[in-house]
């Protein structure tokens, strides 16, 4: 493993950008033999909007990855008194993400970035049909 190598390399990045992709994941592997997902999270977390997604079930395809994130690019709030008002939060999210063109990069897990977060319990009205 070479810690100086990024994937995709610059030439591949330029090619993907030229194909119209406007959000291209770039990564490099680092040796973390002495780290656990929790110790890595403690080192990178900044503020209340940091997260650690850890999976222990699902076999080699799912459980071999831990996902850490911090400092979101955007926080979307809906409901009374917010910019968006009382609307379906998933529709707002869909609108915000619609302009992104995102390539699949070999070597990355199936979830290699995107929107993470939660919705409040009362968002059920946007998922379940209403009973007359």
Topology:
Elements: H1 10-18, H2 37-44, E1 51-54, H3 59-62, E2 66-69, H4 89-97
Antiparallel strand pairs: 1-2
Q: How would you summarize what this structure contains?
A:
This protein is of the alpha+beta class and about 130 residues long. It is built from four helices and two strands.
> Strand order of the main beta sheet, please?
1-2
Which strand-content bin applies to the residues?
5-15%
Number of strands: 2
Look at the structure and give the mean pLDDT.
Answer: 85
Counting helices, strands and paired strands, the structural category is alpha+beta
SSE pattern, N- to C-terminal: HHEHEH
Q: Which term fits the overall shape?
A: globular
Uncertain spans: none
Radius of gyration, in Å, reads 18 Å
Question: Helical stretch count?
Answer: 4
**Fraction of residues in helix:** 10-25%
Report the major sheet: 2 strands, antiparallel
Gap between N and C termini, in Å?
A: 61 Å
Write up what this structure looks like:
The chain has 132 residues and is α+β, with helices and mostly antiparallel strands. It has a domain at 32-71. The chain has 4 helices and 2 strands, in the order H-H-E-H-E-H. It has helices at 10-18, 37-44, 59-62, 89-97, and strands spanning 51-54, 66-69. It has a two-stranded antiparallel ribbon. The chain is globular and about 60 Å long. The termini are far apart.
């Amino acid at each position: 493993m070479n810690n100086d190598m990024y994937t995709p390399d610059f030439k591949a990045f330029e090619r993907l950008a030229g194909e119209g992709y406007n959000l291209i994941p770039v990564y490099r592997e680092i040796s973390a033999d002495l780290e656990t997902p929790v110790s890595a999270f403690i080192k990178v977390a900044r503020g209340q909007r940091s997260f650690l997604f850890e999976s222990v079930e699902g076999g080699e395809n799912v459980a071999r990855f831990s996902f850490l994130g911090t400092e979101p690019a955007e926080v979307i709030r809906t409901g009374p008194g917010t910019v968006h008002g009382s609307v379906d939060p998933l529709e707002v999210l869909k609108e915000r993400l619609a302009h992104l063109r995102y390539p699949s990069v070999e070597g990355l897990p199936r979830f290699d970035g995107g929107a993470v977060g939660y919705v409040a319990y009362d968002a059920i009205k946007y998922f379940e049909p209403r009973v007359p």
